[in-house]
Amino acid sequence: MKHSASMLALLTVSGLGLSGLSHALTGQIIDASGDPIDNASISIVGSKVEASSDANGRFNLDADPASAREIHITAPGYSHKNILFNPGQTDSQQITLKRSAIEQIDVTATPFHASIMESAQPVTVVAGDELRRKQAATLGETLKNEVGVHSSYFGPVSSSPIIRGLNGPRVLITQNGLDVSDASRVGPDHVVATEASTAEQIEILRGPATLFYGSGAIGGVVNIVDDRVPSSSEAKGAYSVGHNTVSDEDEISAAYTGGNDKIAVHVDAFWRDGSDYEIPGIAVLETEEEHEEEGHEEHADGVLENSASESKGFNIGGSLLLDNGYIGLAYGHLERVNGIPGHEHEEEHEEEEEGEEHEHEEEEANVLSDLKQERWQLISELSLDTPWLSGVNTRIGYTDYEHAEIEDGGIGTIFSNETLQARVDLLLQEMDGWRGALSLEVKTSDFEAIGEEAFTPPSRTESYAIAMMQEKHFGDFLWQLGARVEKVTLDADPIAFGHDEDELLHFDELDFNPYSLSVGVVWDFTEDYNATVSLTHAQRAPSASELFSYGAHIGTGSFEVGALFWLHDGEDPHFHEGNNVEEEVSNNIDLSLRKHSGNIGWVVNVFYNQVENYYYERNTGYTSEDIEDHDHEEGEGEEEHEEEHDHGALPVYVFEQADVTLYGLEAQLAWQFSTPFSLNIWGDSVRGTLDDGGNLPRIPPLRLGSQLRYQHQGWDAALSVSHYFEQNMASDLETETDGYTLVDAEMAYTFEVSNNDLTVYFNASNLTDEEARVHSSFLKNLAPLPGRGLSIGLRGQF
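Structure tokens predicted for Putative TonB-dependent receptor (798 residues):
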């Protein structure tokens, strides 16, 4: 937990001739009772100059008195505050900080100082003990209870965050500010190639974040922050070991950072191994008609078959510590093998010898995913003292990602993604009160899918961008402005298209020039309260999979067709190539009202997002057996077809563009009603509609949650209840989803061993063993949420 505080302090200058020298900015920080606050962090906004308060709440901060500066102070359990001071002030002042019931942690993902209470755009940060408590095997499950965030839930093996009803290529997943560069944006069955167990914090930017990250962040950003490239040699370490019963899963993780005055080193590692997980009842949700049909398929009771997984990985890095910052390099390796639930294929073998026909033999062949990723990162943050620049932050990443889909012991399809990305943020000197950054970025991605079930051709994406972000205080108002321009180029290899398998369809190289504009204001209209307005016009270039896909996507159990094709309806449905495609255009408004100090804190957000040319997958009502190009039942090629896996008649989904509207409400309240007890209540809703009528598919339902927590003398216990309402606003050919209630409990005790903290914990999830199906999941009728589960373990830090 990290919070903010503030102070008014003064510089001592002996004359104008000393204006270019550093002097001590001094002060004291106390709480409302007059007691000093130690270990508060005091920094000069726009620079890397910082200090900490001592046991008496006092601090000394090196400062340049040549111009007005803004001071930012954070302290655990207190509300953030920014103070402007001017040259010539000579008296140190005592500053009183207020308690905050809502956790406030600074975001590292933007050049601005931002937290849940300071940013014009809604943000959430999960860190420290809270992150350890919420940690799950997938990123989506780790974050699924954050306000405005749901999960795509593809069983326990793969789950991505959904922000305000948007996911896939609209929500960018980054690690230390760089794209994770996996295949998770292509399909929900693909794992997000990052790990929460060794992360220090996870930052969520809700709504368009295109200014900082480009058009792929039109729906939001999830940034996983770890210490693989250390910025300090301060010795620290953490470790954890645990076991849960619902999937008989064991896990262990550890991390260490240390070094000396010149060199910092970091190493972390994790390992996790689990079996098929337990569920309440039968996995497959059948209609009454399907169940009553003669010869309906029998399914295992109490377990989700083919949902086991094993993963492991490590990161190692080092930094050269300089007087004005650091420069470091890190290498990371990740491996994961998991089943893909809901997609066991039945293979049929037919033989005919000497006039005697043998019966069909049926055999189940599970589908597995085998992932490997290697990742290099170079990160540098340097302070400067030039007329134009106060600092330069550089991030360069290279990722080599591959995962194979294995069927019946053989590799069916291999997905690979090789990405090189470089980003430089030039931090500008403050001018007339304005401060900010100029950002330059280039990214190339070479994506390839090879195999009999490669539903999208090999493609290459290049993007170049320049962005400017500025902010300034005008009295009680903080204005934040930004603009970004990109150039995105996509091209893909030709594909077989039509009856003649030798006939190749060649794609033209496509160029897009999306741009984004944003203005936001934070108004501190009275003590302890603020209100915000954020307006964003953002454009997004389509992803390669949205344009070029044409084939069976076995993970989602569908036949996908890209937006470059158009459908001929009728008795003989088939596809033609040649659709025109355009950038997606979002016009978004966010309104927030916040109370950030005292024993009661709350945040209410309202958003409204109109999107033109929105890319979405429409269920056509046809199956893969209906369309012309996949009719191989007769004639040449029949023998080859029989040797391939028979996936049956897959529903055909086509990417189309339409004008849509998304709007919703997010609210959270924290009440510290006594010293050991606190109550948190939260809820969110999102509505997604097509402007021409109808609903968007897989939009999460309304939900409400609450948590009662007790924290005293090392004990930490909580009882949580979350209710997901029925989702009856379904799209065409989409089934409705029943509501459900989940009850969870946790208990932990922390004690000191050799001056180090050690925590023993016991958690219980889904205590009522409720059958729960996630409406936003492609597998909602095949894979319910886990049943009752118990977890036990210990974690420590030093």
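Residues 444 and 462 are 4 Å apart (CA to CA).
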